[in-house]
Amino acid sequence: MSIGIIGSGGLGSNLARALANKGISATISNSRGPESLATLVGELGASISAGTVAEAAAADIVVVAVRWESLPGALEGLPDWNGRIVVDGTNPVEFLDPEAPKDPANPLADYGIRAIDLGARHSSEVFSEWVTGARVIKAFNHLDVSVLGEPAVGGGKRVLFYSGNDADAKAAVGALIEQAGFSGIDLGALDVGGPLTQLPFGALATHNFVKI
């Protein structure tokens, strides 16, 4: 299966690094265009190529790795997803201006983020509305992105959780997680696994488990 990554920040670049380390091919993209990714793909090697967002979005498995507030702009105007697999790697948080005064009412101010209130909905439920026709899988979102480039740790494999409503799509993403050197754990349906791993308050968010 072909793999596309939309977003080249911490999540997108470190996921690409994990794939590159196993020789897994992928196309990475961002809003600034392929030329802006020349240094990154040069570092990662031949298995990772730079493309446009449209080219990355045409893959069989598309990982969306952009900030929550950037989602509408990143996904608008793309062709119909036609049942392809879209991995929601996002979290409903806003990154704060480090120079701005801290809001004492924000419990996450010291971490430089603010939770975005989605009411009673979880983030993948909202995300799915931006990728109509896709088979949405939640994955790659619950850990500090800086560790994603290092699946092997302490003699074991770093655990990645994933969830979704389509069994075949989950199997494909689970296989990719394993091929990249992680240990995948299926949390079930999107309405179950999505809230558990959603930053900042999901019960499994930020938990860095290792399977020995």
Shape: globular
Q: Which band does the percent of strand residues land in? A: 15-25%
Quickly give the structural class: alpha/beta
Helix content: 25-40%
The counted number of beta strands is 12
- Give me the number of helical elements: 7
Mean pLDDT: 96
Cα distance, first to last residue?
A: 28 Å
Can you describe this structure in just a few lines?
The protein has seven helices and twelve strands.
Description:
The longest helix has 13 residues, at 167-179. The chain contains seven helices and twelve strands. The two termini are 28 Å apart. The strands form two sheets. Strands 1, 2, 3, 4, 5, 8, 9, 10, 11 and 12 form a ten-stranded mixed β-sheet that branches. With 212 residues, it is of the alpha/beta class. The chain is globular. 26% of the residues lie in helices and 22% in strands. The relative contact order is 0.16. The chain has helices at 10-21, 38-44, 53-57, 71-75, 123-127, 167-179, 190-197, and strands at residues 3-6, 26-29, 48-50, 61-64, 85-88, 93-95, 113-115, 135-139, 152-153, 156-164, 183-186, 210-211.
